[in-house]
Amino acid sequence: LVAWLLERTKSVDFDLVDSSVVAAMDELEPEIDNIREALRFAMNRVPEDAFVIAGRLASFWVFRTSGFEGFQIYSELFARYPDLANSYWGLRAAYGQAHLAHHLQSPERLELCDRVRRIGRDLGVLDFEVKASVFEAYFYQNEVRYAECLATLDRIDRFIEEHGAFESEGPLLRIKATF
Description:
The chain is mainly α. It has helices at 2-8, 19-28, 32-45, 47-56, 58-64, 68-80, 88-104, 109-123, 127-142, 146-163, 170-176.
């Protein structure tokens, strides 16, 4: 079951969701009970695979569920296996949880963004620095904390200029357009 889910989740492992990813989510959605069972099994027996699955399912949790269940799964993974957090799939799972925290407006979302940035820096995977900072900028914008939002946007611009590490400017441009 875990091998099946590892294979199936490859098709939904994207930050930018296009029609092919939507179709893959449509195919995966009826398997939600199998997803739960495979994740439970992996968390108990093969936690490394649980991190891979969780890292791949971020967009699925956002677009096909309320997000709360996925958020709880990420929380449990990091609580049970903190030693696996500092890996590529730990970074992907941390980003998935920060993504869900953003959508759920969780009070710990800034802390989760900090964890994404820390793990990314430790691993030298810099594009997650910007992704987590975009969530932070949205938070400040929604909280009407414009000075902090602008400071975050400036920090993002400096980071991109120094490192050239960003895949999509869309969310960043949307925030900037409000100022």
